[in-house]
Amino acid sequence: xxVPEYKNNAAIAFIFRxxxxxxxYLGGEEFRVAAYQRAADMLLNMREDIAVYASDxxxxxxxxxxxxxxxxxxxxxLKTGKMEVFSHLKKQVPYGLLELMDVxxxxxxxxxxxxxxxxxxxxxxxxxxxxxxxxxxIKGIGKRRIExxxxxxxxxxxxxxxxxxxxRRIGTALLGLLKKIPGVQRAEVCGSIRRKSALVGDIDVLxxxxxxxxxxxxxxxxxxxxxxxxxVRGTNKVSVLLRCRHIQVDIRLLHGREYGAGxxxxxxxxxxxxxxxxxxxxxxxxxxxxxxxxRATHRRIAGSTEKEMYRALGLQYIPPELRLNNGEIExxxxxxxxxxTGGRPQQIPGHGSARDR
Length: 357
Fold this sequence. Notes:
This protein is an alpha+beta fold.
């Protein structure tokens, strides 16, 4: 049974998602970005229109992921059809470019260069600037990066995500190719494929290899006939476009002891991993794709398996398909392991039944 869509919920959820993007562009603290994303998810999963709470601000504040400040914003929107803080934020950012932040290669720093130095505010202006060579010579944007922008912008315009089954087939073929390369100890498809999303925008792959083997692995992979174009090439990562469906593939190379942390980081969702990092920070830890570390001493706490990572944070293992930042983390810290996802109760397997990743 699907959760019905309500006009007010969808409208406010859209605004909250856009506000999260604005704060991400402005360099806001991650907790604020995550808070608006969680509130948007909650609104879209409600079984009633948020307007039923319009006359009772206390009931509105009591909803999951909605505190006093968000309650006031929602109440104002329900009364006026506007959210003043959102209108103010939109004036501070290149609003027409914000969705590009979800595309690899268009991070906040890049968008700030485009906006602050060239006044580019939307995708059309960016396309015109690229065609007019206005980015040539801009500090922080080299020739190769400009070429990659042109390709990525064109792919974004096409807007052609790949169905999950097709993406799985491509991912399986990639793993077959990678595992034949000398030095590759292990390879796993992560991202939205592992989360079993219906549509897949790009393919994320984690490769385990010793540092001295990685350059040769990357060189062999990009020489494959399946690779159309190299977008980013570094010591421990590479991004390419495949000839098949022109889909982007992002590969990260890590050490075996970092396998669980890398798998967790690359699987996402973004909101889920941000929430986990917030919990880690509260416990005095630092969490990234390399592991979980004690902040004061830098002592390694966990990282070899996902189970180890969750356990160190005081949580039970959460299967990839439930990592939506929609209450699953809160549930994983409780003895009763039932949560609501998409209107249907889901049980998070305990450590004894979950497959160790």
